[in-house]
Amino acid sequence: MLEQPLDIRGIAMRFLEPEREYRWVAPFRWRGSLDLVACGLDSKKRQRLEQILSLDGSDRGPRLARAACVAARQGRVTLAQKLLEAHVMGCIVPIEIEVRARNVLNDERKRVRTLLNRLREWPAGIWNLQDVPAWIIPAFIYRFRTMVHNNPITILSGGHLLCPGEWEWKIPESSPHPAEVIRRDGMLNPLELL
Description:
Layout lengths: L1 E4 L2 H9 L5 E4 L17 H12 L8 H12 L2 H13 L5 H21 L10 E4 L7 H11 L5 E5 L8 E6 L8 E5 L10
Parallel strand pairs: 1-2, 3-4
Antiparallel strand pairs: 4-5, 5-6
């Protein structure tokens, strides 16, 4: 059985090959790749799928696409599938799905806004977000890059739905994506990381 990440890439894999069986894994533990050229979609649909994949964590872009990304990271697979299909196929979604999409985006925006607190950075360059689930970290990184600075940082986060525990995210300079995500063993004093 193949693995698929519990984020928008995994939802895209299900969209492209619905008959194939997959096993969900945490997005930062997945080492596979997604080949959109070999999928057989026409160029417009492939372009929309590429767009939605590029928006994961972003706070700009089409609302349904961004909501699909957030829903996927939260583990709301059915909602994420409906939103992805609507975006790729260019369909209009029912009003109740539109409302759920707005609620998902509003929830993420509020959570990220409260995390951008300088008191969470101690020592310098290390952001302590252990009380935050790992699904919110991609959005935090994007917002951090646009509102704070582009220096390399380390983020200490809480667990993921599929990988409990604490995680350490190493974010290189000017990058919205982690270079590596490793599990933290035990409770370390953040001052020991200096």
